[in-house]
Every structure is written in C-alpha cells, then in structure tokens.
Amino acid sequence: TRVLLTGGSGFIAAHTLDxxxxxxxxxVTTVRSQEKADKIKEAYPDLGKDKLDxxxxxxxxxxxxxxxxxxSNPPFEAVLHTASPFxxxxxxxxxxxxxxxxxxxxxxxxxxxxxxxxxxxxVVTSSFAAIINPxxxxxxxxxxxxxxxxxxxxxxxxxxxxxxxxxxKTFAEKAAWDFVEKEKPNFTISTINPPMxxxxxxxYLNSLDNLNTSNERxxxxxxxxxxxxxxxxxxxxxxxxxxxxxxxxxxxxxxxAAGKRFFVTTGYFSNREICDIIKxxxxxxxxxxxxxxxxxxxxxxxxxxxxxxxxxxxxxxKFRSLEECVVDTIKSLQSVGL
Length: 338
Ligand code: NDP
What we know:
Layout: E1 2-6, H1 11-22, E2 26-31, H2 34-43, E3 52-56, E4 78-81, H3 93-115, E5 121-125, E6 143-144, H4 154-157, H5 161-183, E7 188-192, E8 196-198, H6 216-222, E9 237-240, H7 241-253, E10 261-262, E11 267-268, H8 271-281, E12 305-306, H9 309-313, H10 322-334
Parallel strand pairs: 1-2, 1-4, 2-3, 4-5, 5-7, 6-12, 7-10, 8-9
Antiparallel strand pairs: 9-11
Bound molecules: NADPH dihydro-nicotinamide-adenine-dinucleotide phosphate.
C-alpha cells in the first residue's frame, strides 16, 4: 500500500514507519525540516525513494499545511496522521496545543477529500486523553472503553497545560468523526487511543535531554531522581510503543477496523513498578528507591478499570509486558548516553 505518514520524526511515528516498511508498504512521511528527513533516511540506507520518501510540513496548524503533501505519484491509498503536539513547554494553550491538533486533523482530512480521491483508509492517532473523564477522578466503579468520550469543554481546556493537551486530543478526534459524518468522504477512518506510551527511543532522533514526554519518567527513575520520593503515577494505564505502532498498521490493513476507535492499553502500571524493574535488571543504576521510599503506589481506594477487548479481537494485538518494555527502553536510552 502507498501510505502517507505524518510527523515521521515522532516517537510513535518512528516505530510506525519501521513497521510499515517491514510490512512492505511504500511510505512518504512528513517532517518539519530537511535535517529530520536526512536523519531518518540515514537509518534506512538501502531503501530507494519508491519505498521511503519525505515531504516537509513545517507547521500543521496552518490551514493548507497538507494540501500538497497528500498529492503523490503513485497516489496514496492510506494516510496515518500522528503529528500533534505532546509536550508541556508551551506559552499559549490555544495556539501551541489546540490549534495544531484540531487544524492539523481537519486540514489533512479536507486535503485528502479534495485532492487524494484514491485514499480509502485514514488512521488518526488520538489518545486515552479523548476517552477519560477527568471530572470523575479515579472512578473505581467504572470501566473505560471506546464507548467513553472526554466531555471536556473549551473553558476547562484553558485551565492548565494538562487540560489543554487533553482537550486538544478530544477536540481533534471529535472533529475527525464530525468530518466523516458531515462530508461523507471517499475514505473511512479509525482512531488509535493509547494511554501513557513507553518504549525504546530511536537513537537517530533523540538525545537524553530531548526525549518524548512519556518516556521521561523512565529516564528520570534511572537517573536517580525518584530516590527520595516516587512521584504520583498519574493515569496508571500504559501501552508499549511497538504495540501502538502495530495498532496503526493493522488498523490500516484490516477492513473491519474501519469506523472504529481503538483503546490500545496493556493495563495498569505504577512508577514504583518501573523503578523495581530497573533495579532488578540494571544493578549499575544505584540511586533507585527502596521499599521504604514513599510514593509511586496505586491509589488506596481503587481506580477505574480498562477494557482493551476490541484491540485484541479486531487488531489481534497481544501487548508486551511492562518488564520487557522498561528493559528495552533503558537499553535504548543507554545508546543515547544513559
Ligand atoms: P512526539 O513528540 O515524539 O511526536 C509528535 C510529532 O508531532 C513530532 O513529529 C512533532 O514534530 C510533530 N508535531 C507537533 N507539533 C507540530 C506542528 N505544529 N507542526 C508539525 N509537526 C508537529 O510524541 P509522540 O510520538 O508520543 O506523539 C505522537 C502522537 O501520539 C500525538 O498525536 C500524541 O498526542 C499521541 N499520543 C501520545 C502518547 C504518549 O504517551 N506518547 C499517548 C497518547 C497519544 P517535531 O518533533 O519536529 O516537533
């Protein structure tokens, strides 16, 4: 299949790109600069332009950002849209988080409808952020699934960067489903909704100081930052990046995935478990917490449950263990200087 993948320099996208190429697809990926394109190209020295090519899209928040990117020869049959800001180094929630997420999503869907009639499948990277209802807190009696949609409002979005991020993913996903309903395009969409994504970083794109947001805690644990107190875990549900990549590729390949959201999650984790896994497997990192170090456990009153059945049944996902994930993440961080 001829595929357009957006944001190819991202953590999740790099693994998705790798899997697309392994499955024999022909990929054009968008990146923000020629420098990033060159770095990715270096990792695949044997692939010709027919298998891997690049298109520069500097800012997905521009209305017409994807107008030219969706046109290709041979034409695209599928689009995987992963590019969206996921970091909290921002000054303006609307401009830095919400606009790129929403306009990026609607912009690419409009461009496909207008100029890429051969595209049949679009997979959009959404998030558990678009599922969770933060107003209900830990909600022990609830089981989250694809049925749930975060009811966050524009006003709540402006409260702090975390709300802003969650709103950006919620509004973007909603805009995608609305687009399909109203515009009745020639293609079907699927969304992939992962919670915290951990896993190996690709060495050619990262440095220890410049990691994707979700892997920072694994680095920080190994660096001894949790020695005196383990921070609160946050969402407590996770998935391995390689399983997320597989979800994207399978959602594109499997016809039954059309029109569905996929809550791709392995299940629970805690920051304490991450520390314990590092301690057990990498004795060289000395400053890890001990049994008596406070923090990092599960909430005492229990918490929401999760249902990942659809990802298993439709996409055939198996889900890697936390131990495999953390061990491989640490190994990958060692290649960038941990
Ligand atoms: P990364 O930060 O590694 O990737 C984000 C990608 O989006 C990068 O390629 C980035 O380019 C690109 N991007 C961001 N803003 C813009 C913009 N304005 N214009 C053009 N490109 C832009 O994070 P992840 O790989 O983790 O995130 C990928 C997707 O997965 C996002 O949609 C995110 O919301 C979603 N997600 C991630 C989770 C996680 O725990 N990691 C959990 C749930 C969902 P550049 O690096 O050049 O700025």
